[in-house]
Prior knowledge:
Layout: H1 2-18, H2 21-48
Helix pairs in contact: 1-2
Amino acid sequence: MIGISQGIQPIASFNFGAGNYRRVREAYFKATSCGAILAVIAFFCSLSVPIAI
């Protein structure tokens, strides 16, 4: 998640500075989608290996 957010920062800032607001929005939604998908995969992987606390 941190890597995705750090990776999108230069893309968003470059396009924002160039006035390409559509590309900023597109990059934001793609990064958010990737983060959500990775979070769901990590969640189900953690459920598949139950560990007694």
